[in-house]
Amino acid sequence: MQSICLQLRSLTLVGPSLLQNTAKVRFTPFILSQGNAGGYLIPAAAMSAFNSQSQDLLWKTMQGVSPQGKRRGRAKNLLKRKDLNRGQVIGFGKEKLAFPGLTHNTTEVVNKQTNETKLTKIRPMKDSVYQNFEVKLKVAREGIGQNRSRYKGSPLERGWTGNTIRGKKFGAPLADNKELKFNNFDSVLLDFKTTNIMKGVLGRTKRTSALMVTGNGNGTVGFTLNKGKYAQNARTLRAATNKAGLRLVNIERYEDRTVYHDFFTQYGKCRIFVEQRPAGYGIVAHRAVKAICEMAGIKDIYAKVGNNKNPVHITKAFILGLLRQKTHQAMADEKQLHLVEMRPEEDYYPRLVASPSDGKVRTQEEIGHNEVLDFQITSHEGNLPNEKIDKKSPFIGTPGWDKHLRTGWAIESHERVRRRMRVEHGDVYGSVRSHLYDKYPECIEFKMERRKQDAE
Predict the structure, then answer these.
(1) Beta bridge pairs of residue 118
(2) pTM here?
(3) Mean pLDDT for all residues in the chain
C-alpha cells in the first residue's frame, strides 16, 4: 500500500515511481500499480505544521457574532479565549525523550581533568524530570477557564465594596497643557451605570454613565457626569476624570476643616441638612457626601440625606449648598450686627467671631419688629430637620414588661453609684468599694485589679 500525503486544496499521491497531483478526484475505487491493494480516494482538508490554521481564525469561528447581533445583545456569555498551550514546553512530551538543546545541554563532560567533552544524543528522560514538568503544567493550567477569580487588589485600591467600582480612586486629571499639572489632586468615582436607549435604526443601544469628583483636599473641588460608549469603560473613566478637572470651584471652609454654619440644601427631591461639628468629630454622612468632603478638605461635618439617594442629586445639592454658604464677615455685614458664636462643646460661652467691616452697628430701634434674627431659620431657610422620636418598646404595659422592670430594680443604680465613687475617690485602684471596705479591704471592684501595680 502506497502512502498518500494530503495538501491544502489538493491531493498528492506519492509512490516509488509515481508523483501525481490531483486537484479533482472522483469517489471511485482504484488499484495501485504495485500489489493487489485497493481503496477509495477521498478529498479532505490538509492539516499539518506547515499549513495549519491560525488560532485567531479558529477562535473567531467559536466567537463569531455579526455586528447586528452585537447591537442586540447576542454577544453575551460567549466562549472566552483560552491559551491552550499554556504551560507547554518544547521538548517535553508523552514519549519522555530528552532532546539536546531543549531539555538538557548539547554537550557533556567526559573527563573533568582534561575537560574532554562530547555531543549528547537523544535518550530517555528521567522520571523525576518529567514529573516536575507535569506539576508545573498542572499549576499553569489551573488558571485557564471562565471561572477565574478577578484580581481584587488591596483594600485601599478597591472602592466602597468589593463587587462594584464605585468609590475607587483614579488619580489626578491630565491637563492638555503639558507644562501644567494637577498637583495634589485625586479623583473618586461616585456612580457608574449602564443605560439603554431605543433608536429607530439600531434598536436598543447601550452606553455608560460615570459620575466623577476630583479635588486637592484644600478647598478646590469639581465634578462631572460623563457619558461613554458601551464596553469602553477605561476611556469613559479617563475622560470623566479629565472633565472633572475643568469644572473646579473653590469652597469656603471655617478653620480649614468644616463649614461656616449649618445650612439646608436641596436639588430635585434630594434634601440635605448639614451641620457644623467641632475638631476631631470626623465626617458622618452619606458615602457620596463623605467622598466630596475628602476631595474638598472638609474634615468635621455631619450631613443627613433625605429619602432620595440619587448620587447625582446628592452631589449637586451638596456642592450647591457649599457654594451658597456665607462667611461670618459676610453675615455681619449683611445684618449690620455683631455675630456671636456659642458652641455646645464650650458650654455655650458667647464668643465674638465677626463685626461689621464699616464699624456701623444697628441699634435696637433700627431693627424692624418683624425682622427674623433666628440664625437657624435664616441658615435653613425655614426648613428645619424633624426631631428624631425614640421608639418605645412594643411590650410596654404587658405583664412581661413589668417583670422585666422588677428584675432590674436591684442593679439599676449600680452604674450611677460607680460613677459617683470615681468622682469622690478618683479613678484609681480601690475607688469603687463596698460600704464594708474598712473592715474588709478586699471588697473592691474586680475590674480595677489591673491598675493595682500602677497605684503601688
Answers:
(1) 108
(2) 0.58
(3) 82
